[in-house]
Amino acid sequence: MMGGGGTDGSLQADPQGAAGVELGQGWAVAADDGGHEDNASNPVGGHQDDDANAGGSAHFAIDAQARRDYGYNGIEKTATISKQIISYYYGLDTVYSYITGCSNGGRDAMMASQRFPWLFDGVISQNPGFNLPQAALAEAWNEQVLGTLATSKDVNGQPFIPDTFPVQDLQVASAAILSACDALDGLVDGIVDNYHACTAKKVYPALASYTCGTGSHGSTPHGGTCLTGAQVDALKKIYAGPVNSRGQRLYSNWFWDAGIWTPPTAPGAGWQLWNVVTAPVPNVNTAINLTLGAGAIPMIFQTPPVVTPVNGPNGQEAFVFRFNFDTDAPKIFAKTQAYPESSMDFMAAVSTDLRPFRARGGKLIVSSSVNDGIFSGAAIARWYRNMDSCMNGRATDFARLFMVPNMAHCGGGAATASFAQNEVKAITDWVEKGIAPERIVATNTNATSPYPTGGLFDPRIAMNFPASGTRPLCVYPKIAAYKGSGMTNDAGNFACIDPGFRPGGDHDFHDDDDGHGDGRH
């Protein structure tokens, strides 16, 4: 079964499978629309649930049952009915069942393993929005922080975000992070594999050296060599994660990752597209947080839903920029008589008790960007550690996490981001043959390094980047480390090693604040 994406709302016209090959390999493939239809070109039964004056594509969320269908009910109904259809058509019961999805589809997959442990033998969850309501708080937080840098308004009278971090400034930020952390894994190659060790203690001095005027890399704002002091402060505030006025964490911190800049030759839905701008349009905010996110935050992640028009001075953008982290943030946990399930109830897949899934023999593979711009890699790593503790340190018996540095959301970026087919083989081998994956080989599709050969970047980056090559994705918390000889674009020349983190060291491995507002920075 294929997981959904975004706010769902449309059926796959030609569902080939989440990796794009399953149907051709002889699998039966199922997909669903999350229980509602908001694609104007694809109405089901003549009905199209979208209202620009009342929530836009998230209009469905005014209905409590539609919220449940989107959050979890559609997964169970689609899987159960699909199995019945398969059995009727072939005259045989299904032997193995799998679900694969990315983003909200990754959340679907994790939700299935937790709420419906009997449904699937194998689960692949990619870049999962497993705690989407909390991640939505970070969307609002990030835009408000960037809004303090804005020097003009958009067509809705809200801060115009694209000018706050032009692409050349994100390139500077990436160079600063790499200067601090690239060598921590033993190889300067444009990839921070030792991401837990890339802490604020290391990154802040690098950002200081790239600060206009006071640093050592120029003095011209937006000139492609330095960041303004206000930009540096904004990055620090964003990467620390959203907090309320009492300093209580509401979501998660973020790993410092070079993927904050998406090179033009390695496109993907990275930090820039989510937070700053997608396609530039004069005086229009196009960042995904302010389009898709701005619809979901008031309609889906508030209880009761706050019904607003899509555009205008009191529209969805305005709700994001006026979002109150003391009074609005707790509403992700709120319930009412009309809406008896909070958004955390029907949307979140945060349980760490996977004993039912483990007991039925289920296997789970989670893969995630270290920092993809919308979901914190630190959050999924923290969930995995807590789940491992709940499972008495035996999580790897049935569940494994693979982290991907530099990868944009669900693929792309200056990364070894092509591994979906290998991931499918890994889960089927684990379920059907008992062979647990120790590594998953991932490929980079750039013919040459997407990093410049000089300037802001260490020249060794362009030399050692795995262009047209492979690297191993390692079972968390292990990281890929160069063996010291051989081509740096060959996974065979890399070992998966334990970085050896211990309490009290200069890393953030033991930061387990779960973002429920009971931990302070």
From TrEMBL:
GO terms for molecular function: carboxylic ester hydrolase activity; metal ion binding. Keywords: Calcium, Disulfide bond, Hydrolase, Metal-binding, Serine esterase, Signal. The keyword Hydrolase applies. SUPFAM superfamilies: alpha/beta-Hydrolases. Residues 30-56 are annotated as: Disordered. It comes from the Bacteria. Pfam families: Tannase. The keyword Transmembrane helix does not apply. Belongs to the tannase family. This is Bll4200 protein. It comes from Bradyrhizobium diazoefficiens (strain JCM 10833 / BCRC 13528 / IAM 13628 / NBRC 14792 / USDA 110).
